Amino acid sequence: MSRFRSLWKASLDATKKALTWNVEDLMPPTERLIFNFNSREELKKWHLYSDSEYGGSSSASLEIMDEGNGLKGVFSGNLSLDVAEGSKWNISRSGFCGMRSKKFDGFIDLDAYDTIALKLKGDGRSYISTIYTENWVNSPGQMEDNSWQAFVFVPKDNWYIARIPLARYLPTWRGNVIDASMEMNQSRILGMSLSVNAGGGIPGARSGPGDFKVELDWIKAFRTQ
After folding, report:
1. Is the dihedral of CA 170, 106, 139, 181 positive or negative?
2. Pairwise CA distance, residues 172 & 180, whole Å
3. Dihedral class, residue 196 (left if φ above 0, else alpha if ψ from -120 to 50, else beta)
4. Res. 91: pLDDT tops 80
5. Every domain of the chain and the residues it spans
6. Burial class (CB in 10 A: 0-12, 13-18, 19+), 148
7. pLDDT grade, residue 28 (50/70/90)?
8. Which of 11, 46, 119, 137 could in theory staple to 217 by disulfide, Cβ–Cβ 3.0 to 4.6 A?
9. Is residue 124 within 8 Å of 154, Cβ to Cβ?
């Protein structure tokens, strides 16, 4: 084989290899780990909120504990409908708590995925999964993020993987669904949260004031199609 043909063949083989690598590289994995609650370092990624910030009496905690099957996140607390007398906040409803992730370093891009999955064990209550995206719906130029929410029913006492299609998340404004046709910008995800309120959500789920507890193993994004 001539030197020219050898060089041509080597170049062709390298090009085929590069093209094959690029195609594989463009195909994202079928799942992506977003949060893993197997380390106490995970606590640094989250902060808690409740109606107590507005004169309510609910309380919550987030811990990383080993309850017999390895380290897991435990989000628990108490939902109360009581409101402190003389509170400067005129809240219309109480009895809610949540855990919200601190903002990612930039954005995470979930455009290649169609489902959010949470592995958890709960108490029979209905929880709310929220995804926060860059603000362009409610008030451009303001600090408040756009929020997209979906209910999650957590069966009591058994580990369960809740799979929520991203298409099921509805745009909300301060807890109320926005009655408009909008599409989530999945490439600009800022953070997530999991919350619970005494009002329930899914028919048949446990509701009302009182204690709540949910254990968390991980949160992932999946590509099912």
Report:
1. negative
2. 10
3. beta
4. no
5. 30-222
6. buried
7. low
8. 119
9. yes
What pLDDT was estimated at residue 141? 52
CB 42 within 8 A of CB 36: yes
> Which residue, chain included where needed, has tokens 């902060």?
47
CB 51 within 8 A of CB 94: yes
Look up the CATH superfamily of 30-222: Galactose-binding lectin (2.60.120.430)
Tell me how far apart the alpha carbons of residues 154 and 180 are, in angstroms, rounded to a whole number: 28
Q: Report pTM.
A: 0.81
Tell me the per-residue pLDDT of 10-26, one tens digit each, with 9 for 90 and over.
444 543 443 443 444 45
pLDDT: which is higher, 222 or 143: 222
Output the six-digit token pair for 51: 């109606």
Beta strands in 3-85 (DSSP E): 31-36, 46-50, 59-66, 71-79
CB 35 within 8 A of CB 189: no
Alpha-carbon distance of 143 to 57, in angstroms, equals 27
Q: How confident is the model at residue 137 (pLDDT cuts 50, 70, 90)?
A: low
What are φ and ψ of residue 156, in 5° steps?
-80, 135
